[in-house]
Amino acid sequence: MATIYLIRHGQASFGSANYDQLSELGQLQATRTGQYLARAGVSLDAAYSGDLWRQRETCERACKELDGDIAHHVDPRFNEIRNDEQVEHLTPIVAEQNPALKQLLKTGLSNSKHYQKLIEAVFNYWVSNDCSAYGIQSWDEYSGMAQAALAEVMSREGSGKTIGIFTSGGTIATLVAHVLGLGGTQTYQFYEPVFNCSVTQLFYSGENVSLSYFNDRSFLQLLGKERGEELVSYR
């Protein structure tokens, strides 16, 4: 039985001019994740990430803590869901159907929790409708590419391997829902709770894949307690 670890990137720089970079905490989370894997005796045969910098840097920092020269493959199909374009194009439509969201937009999105409510409403509209007419990537296109990327990793790496895929919360949620045989409308429940640098484990054999565990961040809590560090974050 072969193993895939889906690892979310460390904390990005929310609110800064360039979101797509790890914060100081995100850099530390990535390093501690690699140290955890090393202490747990995990040896990666290969590592994959999307081409977003926060994903690539998390991969590089984590793999630096592991033994051996780990090949790092970059595949943009593991990139995050395009929240920005969804928010830009779909917010006016969703707000007209959602009075609570419309009111929230009037008063302003003053914090990350407010922004998450917007993301949830827009995401659930996106997966339930063909939004390609608005000039944005559709759910079918996005989820299809993520699923194909996972299948190709399994096929390329073959049996008996241990693989790390460093990606984002939306991609992890999409792949977990797919593995469980769920559709787009059930995907958001796996999206919102994903912690930075949490680990989700899949087992695969041939074309068959199953979920072992989801969104584990207990190692960050343990290492944080050992070192006097606050390592757990959502955003």
Automatic annotation (TrEMBL):
Keyword Hydrolase: yes
Keyword Hydrolase: yes
Matches recorded under Pfam families: His_Phos_1
Keywords for this protein: Hydrolase
PANTHER family for this protein: PHOSPHOGLYCERATE MUTASE-RELATED, SERINE_THREONINE-PROTEIN PHOSPHATASE PGAM5, MITOCHONDRIAL
Name of the featured protein: Histidine phosphatase family protein
UniProt organism field: Candidatus Seongchinamella marina
